[in-house]
What we know:
Elements: H1 2-10, E1 26-32, E2 38-43, H2 52-66, H3 80-83, E3 85-90
Antiparallel strand pairs: 1-2, 1-3
Amino acid sequence: SEVEGVRQKIRPCWNSFGGAKDAPVVSLVVQMDQAGTPTDVEFKEPGRLGDPVYRAAAESARRALMNPRCQPWPLSPDKYNSWRTITFNFDPRDY
């Protein structure tokens, strides 16, 4: 599926917070261009950024999404309207 393709593309760029399986799940809202490249990333729960552990995990996730080595994402240009805004969850148990 496209979701798994994106996950495979991003996986090498994400340091899952030192490999800690108990790191927090981080959700980000990603704006995409038609080429499949992220143009903007916002934290879905900005109020949690005061927690240093959450902030470190969130910043790590944001860097992975914006890393040019892991772009563009393998998304069908025909479906751009369905993926131009993506909520992406980084869960250490998935990686």
